[in-house]
Request: fold
Amino acid sequence: QVQLVESGGGLVQAGESLTLSCVHSGFIFAINVMDWYRQVVGKERELVARINRDGSTWYADSVKGRVTISRDLSKNTLYLQMNSLKPEDTAMYYCVAPGYWGQGTRVTVSS
Reply:
């Protein structure tokens, strides 16, 4: 059974940092890509960051320069380091592998 379990969300003030983690299990095949998405209630989900199998990364313009996606293959863990957080970063953040979504972790940034 494939599982993605996020953690690390919370309430922070603008300008502070958070690191989200996603422990994944149950994969029996090589993962080509893993993503972090976010969603605000009433809005569409937004792709925030992506890391490919070769380690190359992609970031949404809204977070570029403030966010770093990384992974530790030995720990089956995906990370999202977020710096200089803004109130507009407030959302539920999801770890995503092809065909699978985690339950999400909430990030709230106060001004």
About this structure: The chain is about 0% helix and 55% strand.
